[in-house]
């Protein structure tokens, strides 16, 4: 009877001990998982307006799991790169920064992946956008040649971007369009800023010689017979033209403020 009791007590102790080992192992796994290194990547907080952007990154030391190798970096977007820049590794942590160059307009994501000593990885990302304003240009019509000319703001590289027009007398631009008045034939034409896709949006005008545009309307001058010049206003797409000023004699160009 005494031997049976001792056997039961020993078996019970073994069960309790086995349970304690199991619980301890589970607790250790949870603790290790919660202390994995974290990669923090910091990129531009505002839209980038140049072709370069600075990105930095850093890892913390996650318990006993340290950084186990060089980072792997990747830039995805219109321009791609695997540059990690200057990297510093000390006491199980890694930090670095990279100056990304040659960026084109679009949305980007930069990711940094760190290898850990336990064989796993940790990754951080940062996203940003690039919107480089288009360079400005000069535009003018050549009345006799029937062309629209574009050049750099300093006057260099003048070149025809539109040809075959009927004595264009004036040009105007807004954020997205190039507009001009064809004096012969009495038309108003719009095109992309590079001169592509020209479309006649107004016809039947009397010798238009000036044109202007604001956020809400188009304006142009009609020379008529040289004695009865008028000012016309229309919607931005050329619809609903209305004469708003008459009796101006020999009119020329027109400008708008505000």
The CATH H-level superfamily of the largest domain is: TolB, C-terminal domain
Order of H and E elements: HEEEEEEEEEEEEEEEEEE
Q: Main β-sheet, in a few words?
A: 4 strands, antiparallel
N→C terminal distance: 108 Å
Question: Overall mean pLDDT score?
Answer: 85
**Helix proportion:** 10-25%
User: Tell me, what is the CATH class of the largest domain?
Assistant: Mainly Beta
Output the strand order for the largest sheet. 1-2-5-4
Instruction: Give the count of structural domains.
Output: 2
Q: What is the CATH architecture descriptor of the largest domain?
A: 6 Propeller
Strand content: 35-45%
Q: What structural class do you assign from the helix and strand content?
A: mainly beta
Keywords for this structure?
258 residues, 2 domains, mainly beta, 13% helix, single chain, Neuraminidase, Immunoglobulin-like
Any chance you could write out the topology, listing elements then pairs?
Elements (H helix, E strand, L loop, with lengths): L1 H33 L4 E4 L10 E7 L12 E5 L9 E5 L2 E8 L5 E10 L5 E10 L6 E6 L4 E6 L6 E4 L5 E6 L3 E6 L4 E6 L6 E4 L5 E6 L3 E6 L7 E6 L6 E4 L13
Antiparallel strand pairs: 1-2, 2-5, 3-6, 4-5, 6-7, 8-9, 9-10, 11-12, 12-13, 13-14, 15-16, 16-17, 17-18
